[in-house]
Amino acid sequence: MKKIILIVDGMTCSACSNGLEKYLNKQNGIINANVNLVMANVTVDYDENILNQEKIEKYIKQAGFKSGGIFKNIKVENKNKHEKNLFIVFSLLAIILMYISMGHMLNLPVPTIINLHDNPIIYTSSLLFFTILFLIYGYDILKNGYKNLIHRIPNMDTLVSLGVISSFVYSLYGMLKILNGEYTYTMNLYFESSAIVIYFVKLGRYLDNINKDKTKEAIQKLVEITPNQATIEKNGKELKITLDEIKKGNILISKPGEKIAVDGEIIEGKAHFDESFITGESKPIIKDKGDKVVAGSLNYDGFIKYKAEKIGKESTVSEIVRLVIEASNTKAPIAKVADRISEYFVPVIIIISIITFIVYLLLGYDLATSLSTFVTILVVACPCSLGLATPLAIVVSEGICIKNGILVKKSEILETAAKVNTIVFDKTGTLTYGRLKISKIYNYSNLDNKKLLQLAGSIENKSTHPISKAFIDYLEENKIDKLETSNFKNIPGYGIIAYINNEKYILGNQKIVEKYSISNDHLKDEKELSLDGSSIIYIIKNNIIIALIGVNDVIKENSKEIINQLNKEDIETIMLTGDNKETALKVGKEIGITNIISNVLPKEKTEVIKSLKKQNKIVMMCGDGINDSPALAHSDIGVSVKSGTDIAMDSSDVILIKNDLDSILKLIKISKNTIKNIKQNLFWAFFYNILMIPIAMGILRPFGIVINPMIASLAMVLSSLTVILNTLRLKKENN
To answer: Residue 304 — pLDDT band, cuts 50, 70, 90?
Structure first.
């Protein structure tokens, strides 16, 4: 299976995106297609043995749309001067047209030559001339409407096209009557309605596009964060090169005030870096030799050399942009409800308008009134606001999450997070910093402590577990060389095995002692370390415990505050750790978690998550994304707390790049505000249609309240603006 994201031109409303999505999902070889109206793209999972890009683009064309090729990144397009000037010109033409057609109703002075009473033929001809200009201006709307009707996926453009063409054709009929001397038809022309409906649709689309672009700004800033050039060291000289010229392994130079060009590792120097664009953390981070640097981060005050490791699409920034685009192309359950309604909405409106037209004729109304009602229903019911209600809110929320250092991989998470009632935390690296230090050593071997830790550190050097860092740091701080190891083997949840000088060593927790049936005569020392709150590492040689090493961690400053806040919101908190019971209880007591499950393997963590879900709990699991990955995958929302450089390998639903538990509270708040906003948007969209369609049908006609196609098109624009402005409130609510 392969995945491709393509740009799609010609989508104007949810009926467009739903129709295209439905059409693509019917095609042989397409496993799944998700169309994003706001981003104007489609994500297609397909069988590469059956399809390729060319065939998928052909299907898009057959559905009445146009493919713009591979979606490379998010572009916030500024309307060019020509388009802006064109809109201004047609705004002036619209004013002139309205003056000619309605000036007499408002007792405005109208030149005799175009006065409907004095020169009806010239008056009619001038209306026709201006209307033809507007039909040319709105050719894309008419073309799309016709195509989508032919392909049986009618959309907003179809409604507008039917209304505009019906009004125009009837007006042509009236013009023929006027040319034959029947001047009373001058009062029943709808040329201006056809023109002004197109104008207002264009106005609405213009405003929609401007506001859609605003929703993408946070993501666009990520795309533009990296510098255009970098300084490379070559043969002892400094050379300026473009990003495209950088190769993996190149040695690059960064001076104070410069941005890092690509992801890499510092090989010389030290500096403070601003990574707020990724982590949301405004405080500069100090980095030294051996630390990773991220493309786009700002070097405040140091001269460093770093080795290029991830370039182009492999960089952290590119990976974030890719994941955000894919996330925005998934659909939250609430969005699917709106999609199903939109799918049937346009055909139902067409049927309602036709039935109303016939009923009006049967009731004795003239053709002009019946046709005007028909057109008004079509125009007033355009589902623009319905189509924008959900995707716009999702994209805005994605941008807010990015600004807060929260990377959400599926849009459905923004809905599910609001329902979470149980959060399960791993201990090391999640509730604690994971910056472990060796606290105490019980040495039962004939080696001195330095030699013992050299042996242990050399083996731990090949491990990815947070505890290994304590041993590695000890070797580096004391400038102790690492020993050669072989046959390294990781046993998740237990420990590690390796050989040094052909001798087998086992390092791990209490479970590894039980697994290999190792005799343990050091229970007193073990208890002392546990009571001290230390994690215990057993060092075993030839099936004999030769040492117990206690490792202490530091609890995160705000862990207690976050747990307290979650408890206040009636969210159950659980600690799920592979560490010993005494250490887990000590940490739990300090931060306020009373439900503690300790001494568990990764597989057992998964069983705990499954058990909680069977109790109908909505479970969020927070872990380090390595040993916890099975549990993260089985939870309703898997959250990994880690650095941005690990993003590509992560399998969780949410990544807290800031490595701060406060982000969990922010995610839940953003989720609740997003769902609330979407419900408000859907309410206003449906309320508008429920209110306006009956009025357009003439339910208030007995009371003298009637709307025409021009007022209907203006109301349609205002309904979309209501949804857009309400959605943009999300930014203020989540500050």
So the answer is: very high
Average pLDDT, the chain: 83
| Number of domains the chain is built from | 5
Q: For residue range 177-209, what is the model confidence (pLDDT) as tens digits?
A: 899 888 888 877 888 888 888 888 787 777 666
- Stretch among 211-215, 329-333, 550-554 having the lowest mean pLDDT: 211-215
- pLDDT value of residue 648: 43
Q: Are residues 479 and 619 in the same domain?
A: no
Let me know if residue 222 belongs to a domain.
Answer: no
On the 0-12 / 13-18 / 19+ scale of CB atoms within 10 A, 258 is middle
96 and 194 inside one domain: yes
Look up the pTM and report it. Answer: 0.67
**Is 426 annotated as catalytic?**
yes
| pLDDT score of 122 | 92
Query: Residue range 39-54: average pLDDT?
Result: 88
Predicted confidence (pLDDT) per residue in 218-231, tens digit: 556 656 677 878 89
Contact 345, 386 (CB under 8 A): yes
Residue 108 within a domain: yes
pLDDT at 439: 84
Which CATH number is 46's domain given? Answer: 3.30.70.100
CATH of the domain at 275: 2.70.150.10
CB-based burial label for 517 (10 Å; 0-12, 13-18, 19+): exposed
- 257 shares a domain with 192: no
| Residue-by-residue DSSP string for 707-734 | --HHHHHHHHHHHHHHHHHHHHHHHHHT
Classify residue 606: in a domain, yes or no.
yes
- If asked whether residues 280 and 249 sit together in one domain, one would say yes
The DSSP string of 553-616 is --B-TTHHHHHHHHHHTT-EEEEE-SS-HHHHHHHHHHHT--EEE-S--HHHHHHHHHHHHHTT
My answer on whether 286 and 358 are in the same domain is no
Residues 194 and 92 in one domain: yes
pLDDT band at 37 (very low <50, low <70, confident <90, very high): confident
Domain range holding 41? 2-72
Question: Which of 38, 72, 106 is the endpoint of a domain?
Answer: 72
146, 209 contact by CB (below 8 A): no
- At 649, the pLDDT band (50, 70, 90 cuts) reads very low
Which range (12-16, 71-75, 154-158, 308-312) has the least confidence? 71-75
- The β-bridge partners of 547 are 443, 539
Return the structure tokens found at 74. Answer: 């998010």
What does the pLDDT read at residue 356?
Answer: 95
Given a contact cutoff of 8 angstroms between Cβ atoms, the answer to whether 257 and 301 are in contact is no
Instruction: Judge whether 371 and 698 are in contact, CB under 8 Å.
Output: no
The domain boundary residue, chosen from 43, 72, 101: 72
One domain for residues 14 and 131: no
SS (H, E, C) 403-421: HCCEEECCCCHHHHHHHCC
Examine the domain organization and report whether 342 and 276 are in the same domain: no
Task: Pull the structure tokens for residue 519.
Answer: 């005799």
* Inter-helix orientation angle 81-102/191-215, to 10°: 150
| Residue among 341, 410, 388 nearest 678 (CA) | 388
Pairing of strands 229-234, 251-254: antiparallel
Give dist(CA 628, CA 3) in Å, integer. 27
Which domain CATH number covers 616? 3.40.50.1000
Catalytic residue among 426, 553, 636, 653: 426
CB distance 671 to 636 below 8 Å: no
Beta carbons of 642 and 660 less than 8 angstroms apart: no
Q: Give yes or no for residue 591 having a pLDDT over 50.
A: yes
Query: Is pLDDT of 650 > 60?
Result: no
* Identity of the highest mean pLDDT range in 65-74, 691-700, 718-727: 691-700
Helices 367-380 and 662-697: angle between axes, nearest 10 degrees: 180
